[in-house]
Write a structure and sequence with these properties.
The chain is mainly β. The chain has one helix and eleven strands; from the N terminus they run βββββββββββα.
């Protein structure tokens, strides 16, 4: 084990990502969401870890909390921005300050669950309520096969 997250780390595996330079690891904690109910007081944060040379994780710190509800899927863009599936769309989070810089809203009564990138600045969002394509600036595309699904 390289880390012991607090609370309930996102269980489907889409709540984990690394920075493009490989120096940081990000884990979502969706303690507000349980198998049977929603806990309004539960933890709902991104924890940022430093990755050291021996591949261990150190210096955990809470980076950010969502503006509303919880985050589910998370990715880091080529430019290093944190892109997180939120209840009403996709939040863009500054990886240093933790500030949510903005939200791409994808529809009403939507629960965005996961995201994928395609070169050209495309962000694909899937969730309860449908699937959407967002066209953003090129820096949001990531052509790493692990993140685009092009294995």
């Amino acid at each position: 084990m390289v880390a012991n997250p607090v609370g309930n780390p996102e269980q489907k595996g889409n709540g984990l990502t690394t920075s493009p330079d490989g120096k940081y690891f990000y884990a979502l904690d969706t303690g507000a969401s349980t198998a049977t109910a929603k806990d309004p007081l539960g933890v709902r944060t991104i924890t940022k870890y430093s990755i050291v040379d021996d591949n261990s994780l150190t210096q955990p710190r809470i980076l950010a909390s969502p503006l509303s509800y919880i985050w589910d899927g998370i990715r880091a863009s080529r430019g290093g921005w944190i892109v997180a599936a939120a209840s009403e769309g996709v939040d863009i989070v500054d990886p240093v300050s933790g500030l949510t810089l903005g939200t791409f809203h994808v529809g009403q009564n939507v629960t965005a669950v996961n995201i994928a990138f395609r070169p050209g600045g495309y962000i694909y969002v899937v969730g309860k309520g449908g699937a959407w394509e967002i066209k953003a600036k090129e820096e949001f595309a990531w052509d790493d096969a692990r993140y685009t699904g092009q294995y």
